[in-house]
Amino acid sequence: MKKIFEASLDEGKIRLDKFLSCQLTDVSRSKISSLIKKGLVRVNQRSKKGSYLLSSGDKIEIEIPKVNKGLRPYRYSVLVIWEDDDLLAIYKPQGLVVHPHGQNKDKTLVNALLYMNKQLSDLDPQRPGVVHRLDKETSGVMVLAKNNRAHKALVEQFKKRQIKKEYYALVWGQPKNDKFEANFSLRRNKKNRLKMEVGLSDSKSAQTNLEVRKKLDGMTLLSVFPRTGRMHQIRVHLRFLGYPIVGDKKYGKKDNYKNLFLHAYRLKIEHPRTGRPLEFKAKLPQYFKKMIEE
């Protein structure tokens, strides 16, 4: 994608990198600096350094590579819940990894969206559009950014804990109280870095609010409201409280269920451009709904 600007400077000269940062508000400064160093920015058809001082009338051309460079499209249809020029709300099915990682570099949600020709932000070229994640085994609603301006705004909302999330979890056991919370700090497991655990040292605060929705035979359906967004937070907190999620092979008890009964049901955000409140929902997958009914 090529963009062309003409410098019109009323208050004297300005550095090339600073000028582009003002013009391209959806592109990070580090990305602009990288493009300049790679010779993808030209002033009057000549490559210049970022410190070059522009004059009025200078013609600036910048070539921005496509996001999907190095990523292969994955022929997989993802359900789109809502979409505009800035946002993409989708239903992530269970079993689908969010972005390329480790040995799985092709069959992910990101690769599927590229196959669907969806425009995604490129602040992180290997994780385009991704502002939050769901575990592979977790189904439900996710939002992705379609440009860098939206990406930064959404990340800031997550950072400030302005985004509200509600999950459904089917757990073993029946809590005594209808409403309760888990407020236990989490850290990586020292023996297995791919797992998390409750700990006092080298840990980060984590809070999860829980509410009973329905009591079943030996199980309970919970609404889960994570107030922080730590890795595997809900799964670890529920295991620590003595209510492991049904089908959780990593943190639960040994049972015969193949599916993890954890679903991201609702997501509330503010639109990154207009500030308008938005709410997205994802229906329970059929196996989850059938389990409750039976």
Task: Please describe the structure with a list of short key phrases separated by commas or semicolons.
single chain, 294 residues, alpha+beta, Structural Genomics Hypothetical 15.5 Kd Protein In mrcA-pckA Intergenic Region, Chain A, Pseudouridine synthase, 3 domains, 9-stranded mixed beta sheet, 4-stranded antiparallel beta sheet, 6 helices, 17 strands
Query: Over the alpha carbons, how many angstroms does the gyration radius reach?
Result: 23 Å
Name the CATH superfamily assignment of the largest domain: Pseudouridine synthase
Beta-strand segment tally: 17
Number of helical segments with 4 or more residues: 6
| CATH level-two architecture of the largest domain | 2-Layer Sandwich
| Sheet with the most strands, sense and barrel status | 9 strands, mixed
- Secondary-structure element order, N to C: EEHHEEEEEEHEHEEEEEEHEEH
Helix amount: 10-25%
Strand content: 25-35%
Query: Globular, elongated, flat, extended or rod-shaped: what is the shape?
Result: elongated
What is the CATH topology of the largest domain?
A: Pseudouridine synthase
How far apart the termini lie comes to: 54 Å
Taking all residues together, what is the mean pLDDT? 92
Structural class assignment:
alpha+beta
Oligomer kind: single chain
